[in-house]
Amino acid sequence: MRSAVFLNFNFGEAFSKLSEKLGGWLDALILKLPNLILAIIVLVAFYFLGRTLARLSKKYLFRKIEQESIQDLSARFVSAFILLIGFFLALGIMDLDKVLTSILAGAGVVGLAVGLAVQATLSNSVSGIMLSFLPRIRIGDFVDTNGYSGFVSEITLRNIVLRQPDNNYVVIPNSKVVENPFTNYSLTPRSRISLSCGVGYESDLKKVEQLTTEIIAKEFSQKENEGVEFYYSEFGDSSINFTVYYWVDYKTKKDLLKSQHAAVKAIKSKFDAEGINIPFPIRTLDFGKNTLKMQSSDAE
User: Fold this and answer.
1) CA distance readout (Å), 192 to 20, 141, 189, 224, 245
2) Which of 64, 66, 165, 171 is the least buried, fewest Cβ under 10 Å from its Cβ?
């Protein structure tokens, strides 16, 4: 039965229909070829036009915006908008209006599926937009977030890039920065820092307080509503410990280290000149009588 059906199949007729179909496609392609070339030219032209307008808008239109991250983000939106216009024009040149309608109709379903698939990426993108418009963090600021410290060198739609003090770069997802606390040392020009020390039990505590306060006030000028504060904190094992608080220009961790460095040298020099002892920990080893007897027996 199958052999009879196979014999009745007309290969010539099938080949003729296939050739006719392919010929129709070739004719349509030849007819549409000018439109296709024109559509490609339009896309390429609008791509470079978008990049040019983005660069010019950042240089002239958005130059009054203080935050560089907002300038970059706005320029990217300009470029994407121009390219989208070119895409629609190219579809119109190709007479693909029905395809455009189908694309728009299916965009909702596709968008939902893509959104579920790249939820983390979209979260980072939204966080990137938030960071770009957030006045508390800007390009060039020194921040501490997620266990990393450094200068903000770039804010993209996906991540924030920090240049650490050792000149290495760390890339942190935007969502991590938005969801977790961060410290921006560049927001305020001055900060209050502290330094701890200890003096011997034989020291004149009133004199130590006076000298330390004078040393810090002389080394670091204090402005209005600022001042040097001195507090004894505890009776230590070999010293009476104190902490002194004072204000300095502080925008990076280097400023903190430099100020503490200068304060330690100034205090040590003044204490040495005044004969004030800064003791180091003392450990006493007590062997006891039983231990000594055991040692004597071993010697005999």
Assistant:
1) 86, 19, 11, 13, 7
2) 64
